[in-house]
């Protein structure tokens, strides 16, 4: 029996791809003003910053309890409310279950607009509307969560087995029954995974949103950075790192149980 011929290596193709990537990277580096010599000359400043940041000021830790709790509350509200609102948005944006092409088109563009605007924009917008504080951060993360989960969840719905929804419609079920009993049960595990992922992102994002007055640890981080209290800045970063790692372990355990 003659063995099938091995495909010839496509050296020219991959070589061209590599050269194109190198050329685009060099062009981008020139466009943003990357100066390797200047970076090397300024390494002393970075070293000084690291020296001033360690060891962390653990005596400042009790003052972080309330802002850290506020950060978790902001992330939790944004994740839960945003996760609930993302379900109908995702359903209407999934072709197999969307009522019609017009609804699908409008909902898809609505999702694109939400993903285009960054969370900092929403934080500044809500801070202007409701005032500086955690409420603005919670509202901004709610919108951010809807944008993230609706995109991922709609793609999961598009990959479902359509036989069950079609059978429900053929048996006389309406559109809501088709979605509720035919489509969503197939993707609830993925939805739970996306929700935990969004919560992880929101804990990180709440720090950044605090820089524009949206509450949480971010406001403390900005105030300490402005006062050049780098040992306290490193402590805040360490606290967030531990929290994110703990949430990641918890979400991983939940995903394994749902798999």
Polypeptide structure, described:
The protein has 259 residues and is mainly alpha-helical. The chain has helices at residues 11-31, 36-41, 43-53, 65-92, 101-116, 119-130, 134-158, 163-170, 175-183, 188-210, 217-226, 230-258. The protein is globular. The two termini are 43 Å apart.
Order of helices and strands: HHHHHHHHHHHH
Determine the strand fraction and express it as a percent band: under 5%
Mean pLDDT over the full residue set: 84
Helix content: over 70%
Q: Could you tell me how far the N terminus lies from the C terminus, measured between alpha carbons in angstroms?
A: 43 Å
Low-pLDDT runs: none
Helix run count: 12
Oligomer: single chain
Class from helix and strand fractions: mainly alpha
* Largest sheet entry: none
Total number of beta strands: 0
Q: Which term fits the overall shape?
A: globular
The radius of gyration computed from the alpha-carbon positions, rounded to a whole number of angstroms, is: 24 Å
Q: Short summary of the structure?
A:
The protein has 259 residues and is mostly helical.
Could you outline the blueprint of secondary structure elements for this entry?
Blueprint (H helix, E strand, L loop, with lengths): L10 H21 L4 H6 L1 H11 L11 H28 L8 H16 L2 H12 L3 H25 L4 H8 L4 H9 L4 H23 L6 H10 L3 H29 L1
Helix pairs in contact: 3-12, 4-7, 4-10, 4-11, 5-7, 6-7, 7-10, 8-9, 10-11, 10-12, 11-12
Top keywords for this entry?
259 residues, mainly alpha, globular
């Amino acid at each position: 029996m003659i063995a099938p011929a091995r495909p010839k290596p496509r050296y020219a193709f991959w070589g061209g791809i590599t050269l194109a990537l190198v050329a685009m990277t060099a062009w981008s580096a020139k466009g943003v003003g990357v100066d390797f010599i200047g970076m090397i000359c300024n390494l002393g400043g970075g070293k000084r910053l690291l020296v001033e940041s360690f060891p962390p000021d653990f005596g400042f830790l009790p003052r972080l309890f309330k802002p850290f709790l506020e950060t978790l509350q902001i992330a939790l509200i944004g994740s839960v409310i945003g996760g609930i609102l993302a379900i109908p948005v995702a359903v209407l944006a999934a072709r197999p279950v969307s009522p019609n092409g017009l609804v699908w088109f409008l909902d898809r563009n609505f999702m694109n607009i939400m993903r285009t605007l960054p969370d900092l924009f929403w934080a500044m917008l809500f801070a202007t509307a409701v005032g500086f504080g955690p409420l603005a951060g919670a509202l901004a993360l709610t919108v951010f969560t809807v944008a993230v989960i609706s995109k991922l969840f709609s793609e999961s719905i598009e990959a479902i087995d359509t036989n069950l929804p079609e059978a429900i419609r053929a048996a006389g079920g309406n559109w809501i029954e088709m979605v509720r009993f035919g489509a969503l049960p197939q993707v609830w595990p993925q939805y739970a995974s996306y929700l935990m992922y969004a919560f992880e992102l929101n804990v990180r994002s709440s720090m950044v949103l605090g820089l524009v007055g949206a509450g949480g640890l971010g406001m403390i981080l900005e105030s300490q950075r402005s006062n050049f209290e780098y040992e306290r800045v490193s402590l805040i970063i360490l606290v967030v790192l531990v929290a994110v790692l703990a949430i990641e372990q918890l979400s991983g355990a939940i995903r394994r149980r749902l798999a």
